[in-house]
Amino acid sequence: MAETVADLRADGHTDWRAYGTLDLPPILAHALDAIVEQGYHATTVRDLARRVGVTVPALYYHYANKQAILVELLLGSLRSVLGRCHSAAEEAGEDPVDRFCALVECIVLFMTHRAPLAFLDTETRSLEPGNREQYVDLRDELEGLVRDAVRDGAEAGVFTVPVPVDAGRAVLAMCQAVAQWYRPDGPLTPPEIAERYVTIALFTVGHRPEHPRR
To answer: Does 50 reside within a domain?
Structure first.
């Protein structure tokens, strides 16, 4: 099988804020469209082969089964946003407010620029147990980045939320939900949406810029 495409790799970016057109091989591109349109269980291998314009055996040459395609898309999407988030956190440095803002911006930018990929999060229930375990591990890593930024901000006295772990989880869920409603032809651009969500997220964690940092 060919090397995983850049859009499904943790190291597939050079600038975590920059996005080009989503570039997937035909099988993955058509599978993504089909699953977003009608759901994983309603999408058949025969339907995918018809969309791609190949025979069913030709499809199986590239992927062992339909589950393998879902895994490639769903886990690849999560690895991609994780890679960008690690870059964003590293660029932001040690300051918890800067790191928190960068992470929220990064996640929301992904949810807008890669909305169809991010939408696949709703198909987590369709993963087989072993694959779901891999997904949970990656999602826990993403949640940990946000949680740690909130915890560090609370310990520094710049975030006043009394339950940092729950707040981090709530912020992540809020950001991920953007993929459910975002439309490219909407009134706001991805950077404008990200800016608004950073403001909302700071209020959620009780940011107090006037409070001296420790």
So the answer is: no
Distance of CA 157 to CAs 164, 171, 172, 186, 199, Å? 12, 19, 21, 37, 18
Q: Could you write out the DSSP letters of every residue in 80-134?
A: HHHHHHHHHHHHH-S-HHHHHHHHHHHHHHHHHHTHHHHHGGGGGGGS-HHHHHH
- What is the spatial distance between Cα 72 and Cα 137, in angstroms, rounded to a whole number? 15
In this prediction, residue 212 carries a pLDDT of 45
- Name the β-bridge partners of 159: 207
Among 155, 159, 156, which Cα is nearest to 201's?
159
| Residue 102 confidence class, pLDDT cut points 50, 70, 90 | very high
- What CATH number does the domain containing 113 carry? 1.10.357.10
Q: What percent of the chain has pLDDT over 70?
A: 96
Q: Residue 82 is part of which domain span?
A: 74-204
Closest CA to 36 of 161, 146, 180, 178: 180
Residue 194 lies in a domain: yes
